[in-house]
Amino acid sequence: MYLRKFAPILVSLALVGILPYNCAPKEEKSSFKTAYSTWSSYLGDSGRSHFSTLSQITPENVQHLKVAWSYEASDWGQMQMNPIVVDSILYGVTAALRVVALHAETGKEIWQFGDSVKVWHSTSRGVSYWEKGNDKRILCTRGSDLFALDALTGKPIPSFGNNGKIDMRSGMPESAKNKFVISNTPGTVYKDLIVMPLRVSEGQGAPPGDIMAFNLITGVVEWVFHTLPEKGEAGYETWSEDPRESSIVGAANNWAGMAVDEETGIIYVPTGSAAPDFYGGNRLGSNLYANSLLALDANTGKRLWHFQFTHHDIWDRDPPAPPNLLMVERHGKKIPAVAQVTKQGYVYVFHRKTGEPLFDIEEVPVPPTTILGEEAWPTQPIPVKPKPFARQAQDLTQTDISAFAENKEELLEIFKTSDKRLYAPPALTPNFLFPGYDGAAEWGGTAADPDEGIIYVNSNEMAWNLQLGLADPIAKEMPQGKAAYQQYCASCHQNNREGIIASGFPSLLDLQLRKEKSEVATIITNGKGMMTGFPQLEKEEIDALLRFLFEEEVQHNVVETSIERTNDPSYKHTGYNKFLDNKGLPGISPPWGTMHAIDLNTGEYIWSIPFGDTPQLGEAGKGTGCENYGGAVVTENGLLFIAATKDGYFRVFNKHTGHILWQYKLPAAAFATPAMYEVNGKQYIAIACGGEKLGTKKGNQIIAFALE
């Protein structure tokens, strides 16, 4: 943002090489133009619109886009981050959670903040920015810590918390102090507050997913909203037992990010499912405020209204992205709206101030459970409009098995014997979960034209298997390491340690040939990628688990007392298995990825197209669509920019028609949302290319494009 009173400061910085000399303050534009001409907030603005009014790049000249600069990070791997740009500095996060400040015109590094020795294995979607007078701060996370950095130097602000950092668990109950709590998504800034999204465990014993606002100057907790209500609070009656006193139940956290209406002071918070994810026998009831959109007073945390998308979630159907704030038209009048996309492929649209649905939502009867001790909720809320932007399991037939599959009969048998009913509850027999665990919509978020009431959402169409099994008893004579593996690791990496490679869970066989114990110990404690960490484990238990993983437990004939499991659910999730053919391609027919433009004024689709290609199939793979993670940027003058696809391309579409105008093969797949900005009169769009996800090659670059 270009503020006239800071011109002398900016010029001084330019003279010492921190900023370009000619980044002088610019003339004020209209409020609409100004609000969407910068990219100083996650996903572009506080309404998470992914929208820009910059217009130098047009449908007529977009084919002349070229690489303007590229930055190579010192570490390699998945980068989900959406860069932000403030006063000609681009801020981003590398694969090892190192924060970098780059000259936005050249890509030259200005400063870097991070541990030069310790490598963090989590993912980050970016940073937040706050300023007050000459005080300019970057807010970032690493583990459970929230850091406040000087935006111009990268040095921690000593007056913030403890020498520049606070533990985000400081506002949580004592029971959460040693549990896994991190943040993958930038916090939402409002006045002198930052409200932090939190990622916690999805299994038993997870901490409560409280919504917390921290003072940006001091780091002190200003307010807390209990998503798991305390006794006496509204929503408490929707739980069969006290959720805050349970040693099993937790979560209902916001991990995907939030949006804030700065004019009204209302913050919109989508919450995740309660833990444990797939068995709810210890948390009977509808489980407020899990799986909800909360409208809170951003000043106090007071609840204004809420809507629950999934009652008593046992499918992990948490909203995967921040909501969009936009205006829609009803009866010739503009109405402030908030729209939330979901993993199921539904779009829910509400009046921003009252929470009134702007399209009817029906409570639809759904099947009962067959699991002892479980009580599935009898209805679920389904919007009448818009129609789902992904196919639904109950609508698929045998003709939807992929024609590309060589093992079609095998896939057909799985398909025929799987439960495909709407909201079929998890059972000891397989469910056909489609859209899958990761959803139709993803964490990359939905782009919106905030004044025209149109959203642009990319979607996955991948089927997965959902199934429960009986929890294996842990024998008293079982070695402690094997017992720990069975409790914490087997659901993803399988009892035989072979993993589910196609689903992103690596084999742990022969681990001693590939990893050092110290690295594996760090991953166990802190997590890696989408794997949650287990900081609550004592050193003795970690050492025992390492002996098992490194095949030393039997070798040394170590027999130890097993860990104790009390009140453990009788059922366990059997793992995340994709419905794939014998070549690793989706077992259903294409499209496997799609892109949609939806008019929320009417609830009708403007266009829908396959999104991405499948190079593995040669010419036949063009137009099949493919898996995609990351969001789009849409411009006022008619363009939609998006990478996100497994095939590794960066593409530009005509936002009115869905027609492709330009594409570029990136050095590594970009599972991230781009950022659009302007420096010295030139328009740029930057994207992080980290690859690694979905089996793609690793990358380490941030690349900016501009007209040649």
Describe the structure.
There is one protein chain. The chain is built from 7 helices and 43 strands. It is mainly beta. It has a domain of 96 residues: Cytochrome c-like domain (Cytochrome Bc1 Complex, Chain D, domain 2, Orthogonal Bundle). The protein has a 5-stranded mixed beta sheet with strand order 1-37-38-39-40, with no helix packed on it. Helix 4 crosses helix 7. The N terminus is likely disordered.
N/C terminus separation: 25 Å
Question: How much helix, percentage-wise, in residues?
Answer: under 10%
State the low-pLDDT regions, or none: 1-30, 555-567
- Helix count equals 7
**What structural category characterises the helix and strand content?**
mainly beta
Proportion of beta-strand residues: 25-35%
Tell me the overall shape. globular
**Judging by the overall fold, what is the CATH architecture of one domain?**
Orthogonal Bundle
Number of strands: 43
CATH topology of one domain: Cytochrome Bc1 Complex, Chain D, domain 2
Broad CATH class of one domain: Mainly Alpha
Name of the CATH superfamily of one domain? Cytochrome c-like domain
Spatial strand order of the main sheet = 1-37-38-39-40
Would you tell me the overall average pLDDT? 90
Radius of gyration: 24 Å
The main pleated sheet reads as: 5 strands, mixed
